[in-house]
């Protein structure tokens, strides 16, 4: 089942879809591109939220609005894109931010210079809760991390999530292809936010990558 593992399709909860109509347009676009299952991953920033439970309540409310308006056959599962911050591994209830009923949690590094504490937080989440981190759009950090720092990140027991857009950049495409060839566990996602600047883009990937590669080597479900 072709799955979008990372997208901001829930209406009005983050910088993604600004409303139900936009969400429906995004779903329609994904359907036309062959997507059968969508993982909704709204941003979770611990320093902005009152608690995990309050975030989940907002997320569920946004989901219900979408379900009431959408009568398609696409399966929508709930997760979150959790920002790696100081102390995130000690956040009460963090395990509730996993994707659906899995033990996989999508984590996003900061767009800044790499620091050892970031990887420590990721590893602590994995070991303390028995979860498997999925590192969001690892290719985006080439601009911020040195080669040795990237290598340190790749040593973690995490699944790598690649954005489809990586295949529109020569540098990022080469990097992603090398990771796939080396056998790193991975999944793809559109990271779509809207129908303008960051619309669903599975057509980009389908033009440049073979179907067996698109399906990835990890089935988190």
Low-pLDDT residue intervals, each spanning 5 or more residues: none
Mean pLDDT, to the nearest integer, reads: 95
Portion of residues within helices: 25-40%
Please, how many domains? 1
What is the fourth-level CATH superfamily?
Metal-dependent hydrolases
Number of strands: 9
Continuous helix count = 7
Question: For the terminal residues, how far apart are their CA atoms?
Answer: 10 Å
**CATH classification class:** Alpha Beta
How would you characterize the largest beta sheet? 6 strands, parallel
Going across the biggest sheet, name each strand in turn: 3-5-6-7-8-9
CATH architecture: Alpha-Beta Barrel
Shape: globular
- What structural class results from the helix and strand content? alpha/beta
Please provide a brief summary of the model:
Helix content is 34%, strand content 16%.
């Amino acid at each position: 089942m072709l799955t979008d593992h990372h997208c901001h399709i829930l209406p009005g909860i983050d910088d993604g879809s600004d409303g139900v109509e936009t969400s429906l347009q995004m779903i329609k676009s994904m359907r036309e591109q062959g997507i059968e299952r969508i993982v909704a991953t709204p941003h979770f920033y611990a320093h902005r939220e009152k608690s995990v439970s309050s975030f989940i309540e907002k997320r569920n409310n946004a989901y219900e609005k979408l379900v009431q308006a959408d009568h398609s056959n696409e399966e929508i599962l709930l997760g979150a894109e959790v920002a790696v911050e100081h102390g995130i591994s000690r956040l009460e209830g963090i395990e509730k931010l996993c994707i659906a009923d899995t033990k996989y949690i999508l984590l996003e590094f900061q767009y800044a210079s790499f620091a050892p504490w970031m990887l420590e937080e990721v590893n602590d989440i994995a070991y303390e809760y028995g979860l498997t981190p999925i590192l969001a759009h690892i290719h985006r950090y080439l601009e911020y991390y040195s080669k040795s720092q990237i290598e340190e990140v790749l040593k973690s027991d995490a699944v790598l999530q690649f954005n489809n857009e990586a295949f529109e950049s020569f540098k990022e495409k080469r990097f992603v292809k090398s990771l796939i060839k080396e056998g790193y566990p991975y999944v793809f996602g559109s990271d779509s936010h809207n129908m303008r600047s960051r619309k669903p883009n599975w057509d980009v990937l389908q033009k440049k990558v073979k179907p067996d590669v698109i399906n990835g080597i990890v089935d988190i479900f």
